[in-house]
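Box 3.1 A note on notation
Throughout this textbook, protein chains are presented in two layers. The first layer is the amino acid sequence; the second is a token string describing backbone geometry. Keep the layers aligned when reading.
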Amino acid sequence: MSPTGAHALIAAGCESPYIRLCDLRSGAFAQSLLAHESASMAVDWSPVDAYMLASGGTDGRLQLWDIRQAGSHVCDFGNSESNTCAHDGSINGLLFTDDGQRLVSAGLDHCARVWNTASPQTPTVEIQTGAENDKPRTSTTLSTKTVEMALTTATDGTTSTKVLFIPSTSTCEVLVVDVCTGKVITRLDAHFASVTCAAWRPSFGELYTGGADSNVVAWSMHEVLDSTQAALRTNAWSDSEPDDNV
């Protein structure tokens, strides 16, 4: 559902090539987008434009849609003279940055890529999310292959890092990555099977991850970030808090 709250449409990918837009007010399908050659595995709404929708499929294509237009299709990411797909394998996760200017895609080729929505031909950052000798995979089983990523930004003034949390389906880890550079800050390892989702709770500075082992793990700020950055943030937050004794 669009985070802007401008409409009541839910976008759903399914095992067909279509993306279904359902209106929660009526319960009816409002629109269908013929998006991919086979299954549509991942969708995400732009956080700033209520009518912009991104989709990724088992065909490796990453597309942007404006649902107000008759044709709807806006562009393909990674569509250049040397390439026609964004990933060499199924795309199983999508996430816009909070400003809507970048889009993160995760794929079964064991890579995550960061794209600039204004120039979608090539990714600005590539992140290895699995073992280098792992082979790219395609999948039509949506329930066991899709992943949910999470993103947080530093709001305390100690660092400008945008931190991305990427579940790795091949290593049972969560990668903590600088989304601007692709540098892996740390790896979180607590699950006994593939990690499928991550959610950030900004008011508590906590990360929650879920996996195929049926476990939900809560991570504190000090567990998620490296010790130096965590100390900087803790000191900054402590200095900004009012003194109850004054």
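Residues 136-144 have pLDDT under 50 and may be disordered. The chain has two domains: 1-136, 147-241.
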